[in-house]
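Retro notes - structure team

What went well: the batch runner handled both jobs without manual restarts.
What didn't: labels got mixed up in the shared folder, which is why I'm recording both outputs here explicitly, each with its sequence directly above its tokens.

Job 1
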Amino acid sequence: MTRWKTALSLVCALSLALWAQDAEKKPGLPCDVASVEDAVWCPKCKKPREAAQLDGEKCKECQTATEKIKVCVKKWIPRCGMHNQGPHLENCCKSKFCCKMETIKSPLAFRCEGCGKTAREESKIEHDAKAHEKKVVKSCEASGTQPHGGEPIK
């Protein structure tokens, strides 16, 4: 029984150490929101849906009503299987199976710098009643994480 207790305490200690490392990480660079397009979004699945994934105006996967929103679009290659390379933006080899370009879409968010309130549409921000500068900043919900910001991709 003591071996199990020892193993369990080691797992707990390792989990706490990893959690502490994640808490210390500084936020990455914000997304530049360079490419924006209209999309049909499933709020339950939290994914954009194409026409083939819709049943009328509902998501085929979960039958939830979808909504039309603006999304930030980024294309990247998350990894290269042949060369053990990390994220990159251009194909590094000629193989059809190695460097596969992925498109990642993230909903746009508008945030008031004065009161901190956010919304998916600028006109729908419900500002605080107190007087403040209503300067609105556009970003995507995945801002600060690759490929929507974060560590620069080489």
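Job 2
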Amino acid sequence: MTIRATSRRTLTLGAGALAALTLGSTTANAHHCYIPMYSLSGPASANWEVYSAERGAAEIAGYTPSCDSGADAGYAALRAAGLPVGIKIKVSKTIGDPKDEGKMNPNGANGKGLEYFGAGSTLADQMVGTWIAAAAAECGD
């Protein structure tokens, strides 16, 4: 592997980590909980903001794969790792804390349901970082 390829891969992984951290500080900061999605074919609703791994990579990290097969490789890597392919955030209120009192589900960072950024959940971080790494490796970015 060339120094240039290694540098690009390192920058891509860094961008993935930054994307995940940024994702936790944008919309999700106002609504500090989210639900992991293991399929993107669920029903749509104006009450939920959905961030697919691909959307998170593009909007937050500024990464778009340079080849057509990159997105598929990213989603395949997420499924192989048992990670979500997207997250959805309730836009009208924080689930479990409608009065915004800072309440959290005690299992809010275990990867098995309602997740809270404030409880230390890294699931969204892992999702975006894994997707970017696999897409970049597939495309040679």
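One thing worth noting from job 2: The helical segments are 3-23, 27-30, 53-60, 69-81, 123-139.
We'll revisit the folder naming next retro.
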